[in-house]
Design a protein that fits this description.
Layout: E1 3-4, E2 12-17, H1 25-39, E3 43-47, H2 66-76, E4 80-88, E5 91-92, H3 94-101, E6 118-125, H4 128-144, E7 148-149, E8 154-157, H5 172-195
Parallel strand pairs: 2-3, 2-4, 4-6, 6-7, 6-8
Antiparallel strand pairs: 1-3, 4-5
Helix pairs in contact: 1-5
Bound molecules: flavin mononucleotide (FMN).
Flavin mononucleotide binds next to helix 1, strand 4 and strand 6.
């Protein structure tokens, strides 16, 4: 499901991530962070679940599905990006990585890839090793795309009691970290505007 909010004149933060399981824990963490961005004055757009179910990225293939065009177009207009991945076998999931590979379509843009764009990272895994490892990989991908990973990244250990009975983020420390992540991508985005 794609969520769009337009408040006009506010930085646009694009969220990308989750799993094909609708409302996965990764998606819920990402949604919490984007809602926090909106509370702090930003506008957001979320690509999750079916939005990310794209053909495998093929560099020589120039045809793009409507969903791929939508994603690339939103990333082209993003003032900041927040990416969320589960840890699958210790690493970024194939679904999320494949969607991120489509950023290659921005290589010849005036803003090459995500040059100077704030890049927030969230990982969820059923243990710290995969959560922290995956977070590091997301940060490395941001560097490769010329983006600015924020100082704070959020690694969530889903084996802890993070979620309430309705699946919302209940742990105060995790909520606080996701709020801080939202504040950092917004602060970086506003700084980038001011210095452009
Ligand atoms: C294919 C697969 C591989 C996984 N590999 C790991 C792993 O290596 N380490 C780990 O801690 N959790 C692993 N998990 C658990 C997920 O990281 C965990 O459920 C996480 O909270 C993401 O869940 P979500 O689908 O609710 O977003 C794996 C789950 C799946 C489906």
């Amino acid at each position: 499901m794609t969520a769009t909010t337009t408040t006009g004149g506010a930085p646009l933060i694009v969220g990308l991530g989750g799993t094909l399981r609708a409302n996965s824990s990764t998606e819920r963490a990402l949604r919490y962070c984007l809602a926090s961005v909106e509370r702090q004055g930003g506008q957001t757009r979320l690509f999750s679940a079916e939005d990310l179910d794209l053909p495998m990225y093929a560099p020589h293939e120039l045809e793009r599905t409507p969903k791929a065009l939508e994603l690339v177009g939103a990333l082209r207009g993003a003032d900041a990006v927040v990416v969320g991945s589960p840890g699958y076998h210790g690493a970024v999931s194939g679904l999320v990585k494949n969607a991120l590979d489509y950023i290659e379509d921005l290589r010849e843009d005036p803003r090459v890839y995500l040059d100077n764009t704030p890049w927030g990272c969230i990982s969820c895994a059923y243990g710290w090793q995969a959560a922290v490892g995956t977070l590091g990989q997301l940060r490395s991908i941001g560097h490769a795309l010329r983006a600015w990973p924020t100082p704070l990244g959020v690694a969530i250990n889903s084996a802890d009691e993070i979620w309430d009975s309705e699946g919302q983020v209940a742990d105060p420390a995790v909520r606080n970290q996701l709020d801080m992540l939202a504040a950092q991508v917004l602060a970086f985005a506003r700084t980038a505007w001011e210095t452009a």
